[in-house]
């Protein structure tokens, strides 16, 4: 009897295809796959005329059941073995104009976008020679052209005019292009890309004032230096410099900015915010700073395209006005970062001193160590109402020492027994640790009273009173949002060029032509 539909044989063959057989197993597989499971006399018995129901029974029940039983026995005896599970092959789609458009849309679709420079778009179109321009949240709108300027020429009246030729092009990057900022060839050679204040004043890029939050993400290859990456951070040229003073002196006009760690953690992703446009904590520089613990990994200065392609970092920050904190991100991750013994740390010692002066001021009378000249509006007062944890480090009949951990500080407190028999907290306390990520900032961002008193938006450098090397890096994209992005949104932006199945880097030619 033959089964013309071959349904039972086909099913058995499909089962066998899921196994890897030994030599003996292959013999059995060949034997049974040809439906020779029963003796000839049995097949002849079921092949009698006008007994089609027996053929149906044979082909659709008896035959498949016998095959399944036999297959199970062969597997159990170890003659056949299941094939190991194979992971699907990862297919990387070749880059194209569509890849570029998708990446841009990821940036644009996140709510709150103020400006996004991908260094592909120019005033005279893609592939043109004009100034770089930014996408905004409005479909089809571009604005904020980046003007090349020489900071030395503007404020020291020394040096040549800057041009776009001062910024080499890589021809590739997360969005298809990148520009380079290099260590200056001379003190009077400080090229920067900027949006003038009169162009951006009171626009979405000009984040300032009560209730306003801001976020920034920068795609870059960090090569050297720890100073400014991008932002509205005019440090002023009136601060006493280490070299020749500026001819044009302007007071500080700081709002927000991203840096490569500064002295707090060189090479990290860090963020500055300012409440007054000026300095912090009675020092001559600003010191409100959030920083990642992790650092960007620079390539060698002689790196070729392959090494550069593997060296991209995504630095970012979020200032959340509602939470009153600043969070620094690196590659979409914001790791909690505590600075131990901040009073002895070069950068955070100013915050530690401001914290100590604020503490002294809470107790009546003049405490030992109080600086009467310290400005009260520069106190550092992160919330310390309810401790997250508390441990007793020392306890005697007359003295107790407690270590309390708050959201942004770890404080060692001393309590002495008074005449009333109760333990009383003493003014002198130790700031054991200060949280640098997220960093508490209990203010609104500085709001310049006029366009003439506000900062431009700069990329690659900021304006300050010293002319010295600041940062060497390739920039592949800069995005600013006029709100506080969520951790998920920051992770989404950091995944651009890092998702499974897509090419990490686009070439400039991939951004041209048809989608």
Overview features:
515 residues; alpha+beta; 7-stranded antiparallel β-sheet; 10 helices; 20% helix
Summarize the structure in words.
The chain has 515 residues and is of the alpha+beta class. It is 20% helix and 27% strand. Strands 3, 8, 10, 15, 16, 23 and 25 form a 7-stranded antiparallel β-sheet that branches. β20 and β21 form a beta hairpin.
Quick recap:
This protein has 10 helices and 26 strands. The chain is α+β, with helices and mostly antiparallel strands and 515 residues long. The two termini are 60 Å apart.
Shape: flat
Helix content: 10-25%
Low-pLDDT residue intervals, each spanning 5 or more residues: 4-38, 45-51
Q: What is the overall pLDDT average?
A: 86
Which oligomerization state do the chains in this entry correspond to? single chain
Helical run tally: 10
Structural class, by secondary structure, is: alpha+beta
Beta strands, count = 26
Radius of gyration: 34 Å
Amount of beta strand: 25-35%
Main sheet: strands, sense, barrel: 7 strands, antiparallel
Distance between the termini: 60 Å
Secondary-structure map:
Layout lengths: L6 H11 L1 E3 L1 H11 L6 H6 L6 H25 L3 E3 L14 H13 L3 E5 L16 E2 L6 E2 L3 E4 H5 L16 E2 L5 E3 L9 E5 L1 H4 L13 E12 L2 E7 L18 E7 L8 E6 L15 E7 L9 H5 L3 E8 L4 E6 L6 E4 L8 H13 L27 E7 L3 E7 L3 E9 L5 E3 L4 E8 L1 E2 L16 E3 L11 E11 L5 H8 L11 E2 L8
Antiparallel strand pairs: 1-2, 3-25, 4-5, 6-9, 7-26, 8-25, 9-24, 10-15, 10-25, 11-12, 11-24, 12-13, 13-14, 15-16, 16-23, 17-22, 18-19, 19-20, 20-21, 20-22
Helix pairs in contact: 1-4
């Amino acid at each position: 009897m033959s089964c013309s539909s071959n349904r039972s044989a086909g099913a058995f063959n499909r089962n066998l295809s899921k196994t890897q057989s030994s030599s003996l197993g292959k013999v059995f597989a060949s034997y049974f796959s040809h439906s020779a499971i029963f003796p000839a006399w049995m097949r002849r018995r079921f092949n009698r005329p006008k007994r089609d129901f027996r053929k149906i029974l044979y082909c659709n029940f008896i035959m498949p059941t016998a095959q399944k039983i036999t297959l199970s026995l062969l597997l159990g005896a170890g003659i056949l073995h299941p094939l190991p599970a194979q992971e699907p092959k990862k297919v990387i789609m070749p880059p194209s104009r569509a890849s570029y458009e998708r990446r841009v849309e990821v940036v644009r679709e996140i709510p709150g976008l103020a400006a996004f420079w991908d260094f592909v778009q120019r005033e005279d179109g893609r592939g043109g020679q004009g100034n770089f321009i930014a996408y905004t949240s409005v479909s089809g709108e571009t604005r904020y052209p980046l003007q090349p300027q020489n900071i030395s020429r503007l404020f020291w009246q020394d040096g040549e005019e800057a041009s776009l030729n001062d910024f080499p092009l890589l021809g590739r990057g997360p969005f298809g292009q990148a520009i380079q900022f290099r260590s200056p060839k001379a003190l009077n050679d400080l090229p920067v890309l900027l949006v003038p204040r009169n162009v951006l004043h009171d626009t979405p890029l000009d984040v300032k004032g009560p209730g306003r939050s801001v976020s920034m993400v920068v795609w870059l290859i960090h090569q050297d230096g720890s100073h400014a990456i991008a932002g509205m951070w005019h440090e002023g040229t009136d601060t006493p410099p280490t070299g020749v003073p500026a001819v044009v002196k302007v007071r500080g006009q700081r709002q927000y900015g991203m840096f490569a760690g500064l002295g707090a953690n060189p090479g990290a992703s860090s963020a500055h915010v300012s409440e007054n446009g000026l300095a912090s904590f009675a020092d001559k520089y600003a010191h409100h700073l959030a920083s990642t613990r992790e650092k960007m990994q620079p390539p060698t200065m002689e790196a070729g395209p392959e090494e550069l392609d593997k060296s991209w970092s995504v630095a970012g920050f979020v200032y959340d006005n509602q939470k009153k904190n600043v969070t620094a991100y690196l590659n979409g991750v914001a790791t909690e970062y505590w600075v131990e013994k901040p009073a002895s740390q070069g950068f955070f010692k100013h915050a530690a001193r401001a914290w100590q002066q604020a503490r002294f001021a809470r107790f009546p009378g003049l405490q030992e160590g109080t600086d009467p000249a310290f400005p009260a509006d520069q106190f550092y007062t992160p919330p310390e109402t309810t401790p997250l944890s508390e441990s007793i480090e020392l306890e005697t009949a007359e003295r107790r020492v407690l270590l309390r951990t708050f959201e942004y500080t770890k404080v060692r407190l001393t309590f002495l027994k008074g005449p009333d028999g109760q333990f009383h907290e003493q003014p002198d306390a130790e700031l054991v640790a200060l949280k640098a990520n997220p960093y508490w900032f209990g203010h609104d961002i500085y709001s310049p009273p006029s366009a003439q008193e506000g900062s431009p938006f700069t990329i690659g450098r900021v304006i300050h009173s010293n002319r010295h090397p600041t940062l060497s890096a390739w920039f592949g994209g800069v995005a600013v949002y006029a709100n506080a992005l969520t951790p998920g949104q920051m992770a989404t932006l950091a995944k651009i060029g890092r998702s499974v199945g897509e090419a990490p880097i686009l070439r400039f030619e991939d951004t041209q032509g048809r989608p």
